[in-house]
From TrEMBL:
This is Endoglucanase. GO terms for biological process: cellulose catabolic process. Its EC number is 3.2.1.4. Residues 1-21 form the signal peptide. InterPro entries: 6-hairpin_glycosidase_sf, 6hp_glycosidase-like_sf, Glyco_hydro_9, Glyco_hydro_9_His_AS. The keyword RNA-binding does not apply. PROSITE patterns: GH9_2. Belongs to the glycosyl hydrolase 9 (cellulase E) family. One of its GO terms (molecular function) is cellulase activity. It comes from Zingiber officinale (Ginger). Residues 28-208 form the Glycoside hydrolase family domain.
Length: 316
């Protein structure tokens, strides 16, 4: 996770001078469409008829019931089955600004609708998280401790789904502020393009190219892009057999045999950008037990949607 988190936290920092010599032509239109497909693999709730990753099914349809509210929908942010409002809001913010700044590139690749749907799936949940009680924001659904003792498909979840809120008695200005920022950005994205966002998401093509395969390993860190990409992604739903292939219930502890097996994942989480190699060494272990290197997240993918859209229009 270290190297790619450096890109994201610094909004794609410059690569080292050692990468300058790697010259490859990449299909940014394909990278854009693939990066957006990942979000459909992270969906929680009742899936729509146009769901493209068909190995995912409805899940967590009772989220919020323990608190007497409706908190269905939204995204599982990473490879587990907990929903966190803060990273979900950050994901929405990044997607919104990607649409605002680079919507023309998305339109060229016929991906604007997919980007808007990815954003809308997110903001619909954020509206639910802020709609039920005055001065209350629901910050989390699910319990990380109970979730992490299981390796289980979201469709099979049998772990508790408590809800956690921030309010005047239990303040949490960070999540409230990030949700406000996400909704404000999304309102612009759905209305018009506004040139308020600079190239903070962008740098030189080399950063995107590194992830797409221009690196010492000669490996794409986006699942489904290029001839060589991670096969052992740290992701419950992708590593376990799909409901289509294995309709019977897989209990909480039974999934660990899939976590620990050496075989590639049962399902391809197309478009997922994984944590990537160790910082400074470029060594990458394609091992789903190495979550720092092989776990994908929505908030890693989101910034690159804008990057790929930009380079659709600005090929080097």
């Amino acid at each position: 996770m270290e190297r790619i988190c450096v890109f994201v936290c610094g909004v794609l920092l410059l690569m080292s001078t050692a990468s300058v010599g790697w010259e490859q032509k990449h299909d940014y239109k394909l990278a854009l469409s693939t990066s957006l497909l990942f979000f459909e693999g992270q969906r929680s709730g009742k899936l729509p008829p146009n769901q493209r990753l068909t190995w995912r099914k409805d899940s967590a349809l009772r989220d919020g019931q323990e608190g007497g509210v409706d908190l269905t929908g939204g995204y599982y942010d990473a490879g587990d089955n907990v929903k966190y409002s803060f990273p979900m809001a950050f994901t929405a913010t990044m997607l919104a600004w990607s649409i605002i700044e680079f919507g023309d590139g998305m339109a060229m690749g016929n991906e604007w609708i997919n980007a808007a749907e990815a954003l809308r799936w997110n903001t619909d949940f954020l509206l639910k998280a802020t709609a039920h009680l005055p001065n209350t924001v629901y910050a989390m659904v699910g319990n990380p401790n109970s979730d992490h003792i299981c390796w289980e498909r979201p469709e099979d979840m049998e772990t508790p789904r408590p809800v956690y809120a921030v309010n005047t008695a239990h303040p949490g200005s960070e999540v409230a502020g990030e949700i406000a920022a996400a909704l404000a950005a999304a309102s612009i994205a759905f209305k018009t393009y506004d040139a308020a966002y600079s190239q903070r998401l962008l740098s030189k093509a080399k950063q995107a190219d590194y992830i797409l395969g221009s690196n010492p390993m000669g490996m794409s860190y986006m699942v489904g892009y290029g001839p060589k990409f991670p096969q052992h992604v740290h992701h419950r739903a992708a590593s376990l057999p799909s409901v289509n292939a294995h309709p019977s219930f897989i209990a909480c502890g039974d999934g660990f045999s899939y976590l620990n097996r050496p075989n590639p994942n049962m399902n391809e989480l197309t478009g997922a950008i994984v944590g990537g190699p160790n910082s400074g060494t470029d060594n990458f272990a394609d091992d789903r037990r190495q979550s720092a290197q092989t776990e994908p997240t929505t908030y890693v993918n989101a910034p690159f949607v804008g990057v790929f859209a930009y380079f659709v229009n600005h090929k080097k």
